[in-house]
Amino acid sequence: MFADIAKIYVKSGKGGNGHVSFRRELFVPAGGPDGGDGGKGGDIIVEVDKGLNSLEPFRHKTKYAAEPGQEGDGRKMHGKNGKDLILKVPEGTLLKDEETGKLIADMSGENQRMILLKGGKGGLGNMHFATPAMQAPKFAQPGEEAREITLRMELRVIADVGLVGYPNVGKSTLLSMCSNARPEIANYHFTTLNPHLGVVNLKGDRSFVMADIPGIIEGASSGVGLGFQFLRHIHRSRVLIHMVDAAGTEGRKPLEDFLQIQKECEEYDEEILRKPMIVAANKIELVQSEEQEEDLVLLEKYCTEHKLPFFRLSAASNQGILPILEKTWELLEENKEQAVVYESEVDLDNLGAVEMLAISYDHPEEGVFVVEGPKMEKMLGYTNLEAEKGFLFFQRFMVEQGIIKELKKMGLKEGDTIKIYAHEFEYYDTEDEE
């Protein structure tokens, strides 16, 4: 089954905690702290695999997590780093933040591999906190938290040329006749349920990739039918070949057929109509009556007036195909800019970071400020506030994390109260806060 949309939850590895220990050897009295650092958490990495053409694997498994870093150990031993997790996707996959809808990355062009979520840094062991005034620190730094995000993945096929039009107008037949692609072909709507790609080779070592975009129907841009699911694949193509049923075998007139699909494309994204386009009237072998010929002439006249290259062909009998391919190559040469690559809309450095601190102003009339959050809770778990050295560590933490600075912006002044879970402190200025 072809899948071009998937939603998954991804989480990087948490950093390992720093270790608290002291050197204890027979002939080394008071050896000092030797707690090692925690290991780094694993990254979430996204990598293009050119052998993939679907997001189907992500339909069956929807949660992915990298390994956490291990805690440090005594004798200054560093904790083991967590293994990275690599997600392999087809080229042309868009990664979006499910919550905001913003584009994170376009896995195409030069962007073949990227770190999506960074693993947490390992915490420092207590050996780093020894000072002349504090020679035996009994605390260590906790590891940095993991990052997480719910990801929406959209596949937009990458092809130089896109074949568009109603179902059953002969797109699959044309692709099979002029390339190495072998799509299923039958006489009913939506035979093609996924984009087929083929390489078209011309004389003189010239080639390009052509995609058979599944049939678009009236109302597709509003979500009617399956066509809506495939309009996104047109974006990548540099040149479009719009195929119509020259004989109107399904009751539609060629010009009406063409204008309706143009309307659907415009309503979905008007940028589509700015692409170079060729109009190919297929099934000319079935044009037998004067009325059919008159209807076809109306389409040809419209194309001439709008400077759109127009061709008649019979894909089934391999007639009239080469002139279309030569004109396609000409347009590709005139439009040599790279295929569409979308720019990121997010700050990748902070993607998926969990809000670790929540600062609020409680009881303004009483001057009480509340500071909470996972980072603060973890710090309290590692710190003995009853001990002088532990309290000094706590004060330094409040300054280094920018908490005091943020509280001052909110109006904190000497004599106010800072409330942290079950603890309450009266604030006073110190010289080392700046």
TrEMBL record:
Domain OBG-type G stretches: 159-333
EC number: 3.6.5.-
One Pfam family of this chain: DUF1967
Record's keyword terms, sorted: Cytoplasm, GTP-binding, Hydrolase, Magnesium, Metal-binding, Nucleotide-binding
Chain positions recorded as Mg(2+) binding sites: 172, 192
GO cellular component, as recorded: cytoplasm
Basic and acidic residues bias spans: 72-82
Region Disordered: start-end pairs: 63-82
Origin: domain of life: Bacteria
PROSITE patterns: G_OBG, GTP1_OBG, OBG, OCT
Obg domain ranges (all copies): 1-158
Record-level GO BP terms: ribosome biogenesis
Family of the protein in this entry: Belongs to the TRAFAC class OBG-HflX-like GTPase superfamily. OBG GTPase family.
Protein name: GTPase Obg
Species this protein is from: Oribacterium sinus F0268
Gene from which the chain derives: obg
